[in-house]
From TrEMBL:
Superkingdom field: Bacteria
Complexes and interactors: The basal body constitutes a major portion of the flagellar organelle and consists of five rings (E,L,P,S, and M) mounted on a central rod. The rod consists of about 26 subunits of FlgG in the distal portion, and FlgB, FlgC and FlgF are thought to build up the proximal portion of the rod with about 6 subunits each.
Family under the similarity heading: Belongs to the flagella basal body rod proteins family.
InterPro entries found in the cross-reference section: Flagellar_FlgE/F/G, Flg_bb/hook_C_dom, FlgE/F/G-like, FlgF, LlgE_F_G-like_D1
Domain Flagellar hook protein FlgE/F/G-like D1, residue spans: 82-148
UniProt KW keywords: Bacterial flagellum, Cell projection, Cilium, Flagellum
UniProt-annotated location(s): Bacterial flagellum basal body
Keyword Acetylation assigned: no
Keyword hit for Cytoplasm: no
Domain named Flagellar basal-body/hook protein C-terminal: residues: 201-245
Name by which UniProt lists this protein: Flagellar basal-body rod protein FlgF
A Pfam family this chain is assigned to: Flg_bbr_C
Source species of the chain: Photobacterium alginatilyticum
Length: 249
């Protein structure tokens, strides 16, 4: 009975983890450039003192869905979308280089270019991008080149200030950090800029989360959780019945 109770208990706990993962996906159904987390469950042997005779359930996040989300036209000069494979390089809160598909950009009061999450955008030299204010116009080219028109200057006086760092690593070499940004699986490694990555200006890539699919997965996990609870109740009843037989003996 203890084996079935242990398996059901660990299964119910992992079902809750699975529901949390799908709930997080569902909460980001409108997040720009979001990549849905995948979830799977498998059985694991419990090793320790004695024989490995116990098995427990484990839910894990094997990776993300890297399919492209729908592209929404905004017409805004500071909105960009990576066409096909590729990533925008940003600086994470710890100061390290990370990667994202969120291209809703803005300029703060000091002239630093950042995305809507507050991450500083990195230029092709690996440093943050500074926009000399004040400006009348800003353009981001297909190759990530940033050009500005200083305030009061004639229309033909556009100046190139920097170029967005665009990378195209193998998705298998990346992992999603706790802040939602992607990084290299090799600690401290940064990817080189790829001139073949192109941008679409005036558009944003939406989340690739399938809301219906996430809701269906949550319903399935909830039913599975209820089944695990019933199994724990059955194990308790079987234990009580065994104790009654021992008392009769």
């Amino acid at each position: 009975m203890d084996r079935s109770l242990y398996l059901a208990m660990s299964g119910a706990k992992q079902d809750m983890y699975g529901m949390q993962l799908h709930a997080n996906n569902l909460a980001n159904v409108r997040t720009t450039g979001f990549r849905a987390d995948l979830e799977q469950a498998r059985s694991m042997q419990a090793y320790g003192e004695g024989l490995p005779s116990r098995v427990f359930a484990m839910t894990e996040r094997p990776g993300q869905d890297f399919s492209q989300g729908s592209v929404m036209t905004t017409g805004r000069d500071l909105d960009v979308t990576v066409e096909g494979d590729g990533w925008l390089a940003v600086m994470d809160p710890s100061g390290q280089e990370a990667y994202t598909r969120a291209g809703h950009l803005k300029i703060d009061q000091t002239g630093m270019l950042q995305n809507s999450n507050g991450n500083l955008m990195l230029g092709e030299n690996g440093g943050p991008i500074f926009i000399p204010l004040p400006i009348s116009k800003i353009e981001i080219g297909k190759d990530g080149t940033i050009s500005v028109l200083p305030q009061g200057a004639p229309p033909e006086a556009m100046e190139t200030v920097d170029r967005l760092k665009l990378v195209r690593p193998d998705n298998r070499d990346m992992y999603k950090d706790v802040n939602g940004l992607f990084k290299s699986k090799n600690p401290g490694e940064v990817f080189d800029a790829d001139a073949g990555v192109t941008l679409l200006n005036g558009a944003l890539e939406g989340s690739n989360v399938n809301a219906v699919g996430e809701m269906t997965s949550m319903i399935d996990l909830q039913r599975h959780f209820e089944m695990q609870v019933k199994l724990m109740k059955t194990a308790e009843e079987m234990d009580a019945a065994s104790s009654s037989l021992l008392r009769l003996g």
